[in-house]
Specification:
CATH architecture: 2-Layer Sandwich
Mean pLDDT: 82
Order of helices and strands: HEHEEHEEH
Radius of gyration: 18 Å
Helix content: 25-40%
Distance between the termini: 37 Å
Number of helices: 4
CATH class: Alpha Beta
Number of domains: 1
CATH topology: 50s Ribosomal Protein L5, Chain: A
Strand content: 15-25%
């Protein structure tokens, strides 16, 4: 794994015009997040979501809880409203490889990730409407579907450097029309 990181650092360094190899951006962590939404009161579906996240990431999800009560959404304070997994190190690398090589090619009519999903600080967010794009999850008729959000946090200072890093690591972006 260290050899792969070194190769990526060298490639990104060349593309960013020979920056110091220690100043080259890398992925710091990947956060996979699911909000329960209408499943907030349904324990069976919550367990299904927790199991799905565990299969995808290889790590036990943490509960996210409501900070305050919101009556119009029927949410009480400290109620479980979602689940998230923070991946670092080798699990993060493995997840990113699977995302690029197995998950994104399974999306119908995939033409690349949108360029607008950067946050201005070098982090990239992508969302999926269904969890079925992951090969670990089997679709069963009658099961409710849920989406998830993936945030890739990099050490890049700007979106341009983060995009170069992610492209070098295999993430495809839509071609910009000039």
């Amino acid at each position: 794994m260290k050899e792969e990181i070194t190769k990526v650092k060298e490639k990104v360094s060349k593309e960013l015009n020979g920056k110091n190899i220690m100043a080259v951006p890398l992925i710091q962590k990947i956060v996979v997040n699911v909000g329960f939404g209408s499943f907030a009161t349904d324990k069976k579906n919550q367990e299904y979501i927790f199991e799905g996240l565990k299969k995808i990431t290889g790590q036990k999800p943490a509960e996210t809880r409501a900070r305050k009560a919101i009556a119009s959404f029927k949410i009480r304070e400290d109620q479980v409203i979602g689940a998230k997994v923070t991946l670092r190190g080798s699990r993060m690398q493995d997840f990113f490889k699977r995302l690029v090589s197995a998950v994104l090619p399974r999306i119908r009519d995939f033409r690349g990730m949108p360029n607008e999903s950067f946050d201005g600080n070098g982090n990239y967010t992508l969302g999926f409407r269904e969890i079925n794009v992951f090969p670990e999850i089997e679709y069963k008729k009658g099961e409710k579907q849920f989406g998830l959000e993936i945030v890739i946090q990099t050490s890049a200072q700007n979106d341009k450097d983060a995009k170069k890093l992610l492209e070098t690591m295999g993430l495809q972006f839509k071609k910009e029309d000039n």
